[in-house]
Amino acid sequence: MLKIKYNPDRSGFNEDLKMSLTVETKVWEKDWKFILKKGFIKKVMLGLGQNASMRLLFINNVDRPTEVARYADKLIHDGVLDDYVFVDDYASAALDFFKMDREDLGKGYYYSIAELVSIYLCDTDFLAHFSGDATVEDDVPLTWFDAATELLRDRAEVSVVNLAWDLKFSEVDKDSMFLEETFAYGYGFSDQMYIIRSDEFKEDIYTYSHPDSDRYPRYGGELFEKRVDSWMRVRNRLRATSRQWSYRHSNFPAWHSLKGILWRVLRKY
Question: What percent of the chain has pLDDT over 70?
Fold first, then answer.
């Protein structure tokens, strides 16, 4: 559905290693400057994402689309991205595809629509999503996506694979139903980071409810991650979480605030 704007020569890119995987992230008005101007996006796209079939940016709810697109175009030219998408351009088509409307998501529409558009547009076997403020630890091996997608191929009962969150490996083990050497298995879903089979998530899975899913913040309404969590619990679908490798989630301050200025000065990105 998407037409790549450029076909840059990726330095060190081995075409034989390319997998049927889309890696994507998203930005909105409150975080795009950190992610695009300060280089957060490079941590994912030039790290784990370098051998993916497609590296995408989803732009949602920004005040100056032309300015954001200018930075995204530069990232394409520099070989960081393959393409970018304005979420609003595909929002109606995605909702129609999933037989949903804005009212179904309630307050969760703005938290969820980018993820739904991403799944709707995905034409690779697997989809890896990172929220804009999620970055990958430097020690995560470049082969980790291969291990994650191999698990999804081999284990039909596993619908989601993700890195551990914020190095909290003991919490991962505690929350799990059973453990293996490299992965912990259990219920749960987070939109901060996930790898999925794209075809499975294009199915009718967003109409379920489960009492344990009420733990998600009420301000988010019937948001995407709550709906997926309910489906996984009702249908006994498992999440596999890495017991060795992690991502980091950051909360960005306001760009022009004193905290935001100090944050940019002190960070290495």
Answer: 86
